[in-house]
Design brief:
There is one protein chain. By secondary structure, the protein is an alpha/beta fold. The chain is built from 12 helices and 12 strands. The strands form 3 sheets. A 7-stranded mixed β-sheet has the order 1-2-9-6-5-3-4, sandwiched between helices. It has a 3-stranded antiparallel β-sheet with strand order 10-11-12. It folds into 2 domains: about 170 residues, 3-Layer(aba) Sandwich (Rossmann fold), CATH 3.40.50; about 180 residues, Dehydroquinate synthase-like, alpha domain. Bound molecules: nicotinamide-adenine-dinucleotide and zinc ion (ZN). Zinc ion binds next to helix 9.
Length: about 350
Amino acid sequence: MEFDLTVHLNPAYRIRIARGTLQQVRIPEKQVVVIADSQIAPLYAPALIASLEQGGSSVYLLTIPAGEVAKTLAIHAQLLSQLAQLGLTRDSAVVALGGGATSDLAGYVAASYLRGIAFYVCPTTLLAMVDASVGGKTGVNLPEGKNLVGAFHQPKAVFMDTNTLESLPLRTFREGAAELFKHGLLANPQLCAAVLETGFNATHSNLEQTLASGVQVKIDIVERDPTEQNERAYLNFGHTLAHALEAITHHAVPHGEAVGYGMHYAALLGKNMGYTDLSPQTKAFLEYQRPMPLPELNWVSVRDFMARDKKADNAGVRFVLLEAIGKPKLERVPEAVLEQTWAGFLAFLAA
Ligand SMILES: NC(=O)c1ccc[n+]([C@@H]2O[C@H](COP(=O)([O-])OP(=O)(O)OC[C@H]3O[C@@H](n4cnc5c(N)ncnc54)[C@H](O)[C@@H]3O)[C@@H](O)[C@H]2O)c1
Ligand SMILES: [Zn+2]
C-alpha cells in the first residue's frame, strides 16, 4: 500500500510512504548532495542516486560515520566545507539518507549552509520514519549534552521506502515501534492495537498503513505547534524516565527500549494520580518489544536525573500523563507519588 501525507505548514510538504520509493525520488534542484552514513551508503545510496540522476540532478555522495557519533559540530563543519568546495549554490539541495542521526546532522547542514538550502529526507529506520524525519528539528550534540545546537528547518519532502526496514535488526525495528505505540496512546487507540499484532515487523502487511497512522499523529501535533511552544511537548510521553535510564546506563539501554519502560512508568504514574489505568496496554507493549532487562537502579539517581530533565522546575518534575488514551496533559507530580510508583514499577519488573 502507498500513502501520501501532507504537512500543512508554510510551505506545505509531502510525505510519501511506499515500498520502493527510493527508486522514484525526483526533485527540482539540479545540484544535490546525498549525505548517508557508512553503513547505509553501500546498501541504499546507489538506488537513490540513480533515481535522482534520472530526474536530471547532478549528485554527490558524502558519507559520515554511522550512529550518534556523527552528530558533532566538527563533522557539521567538515560537511559545510565539502559543500563549499563542491561549489554548491543557494538553489542546490541536501538529501539525508539514513536514520535519525543522519537526518538531524544533514538537516542542520542544510539549515546552516548559505543560511538555508533545500532539504529532503529518506529515512531508513522506523524511528526516523515515525519521529525524526517529520517536524523540522535538526541539530547536533555538544559534549555537554544531546541536541544542544540546532535549528528548525522543515524538509521539502520526505520519502519513506519501507523496503529499507527489512535490513534493520528486529530489535532496532521494535525500538522504533515504541514511538509508534506512543503516538497511538497520544491520539489513536487503533494504532496501539496494530503495533501489538502478532508478527508486527518490517514485512507485516499492515506496515505502511500503521506507519501512515503513526506519522499522521506527529503531523497533526507539529501542525498545531511547529516550534514546541506547548502541545509538541506531549511527544515526550515516556521520555522523562527514558532519558534517565539512558543516561544512568550510559546508553546500554537503547532509546526505544528506554521509551518502552518509560511509557510503562508514566502509565503507572497516571493510574496513581487517579487517571485511567493504561498500564495493561504499556505492559502488553513491553511483552511485544522484549527489551533488555534493566540493571539494578538506585531511586535517588533516577529521581535526580528526572529532575534535571528540561520539564522540571523548582516545584517538581513535570510529566506528560494520560488521563485516557488520546488525552495527554502536562502535570507536576509530587515526589512521594514518583517514589511510590517507582516501587510499583520495580515490582512489575521483578514479577
Ligand atoms: N529531529 C527529531 O525530531 C528527532 C526525533 C527523534 C529522534 N531524533 C534523533 O534520531 C537519532 C536516532 O535515530 P536512529 O535510531 O534512526 O539512529 P541512527 O541514525 O543512529 O541509526 C541507527 C543505526 O542503524 C543503522 N541503520 C539505519 N538504517 C538502517 C537500515 N535500514 N538497515 C540497517 N541498518 C540501518 C545506522 O547505520 C546506525 O548504525 C538520535 O540522534 C535522536 O536524537 C531526532
Ligand atoms: Zn524518542
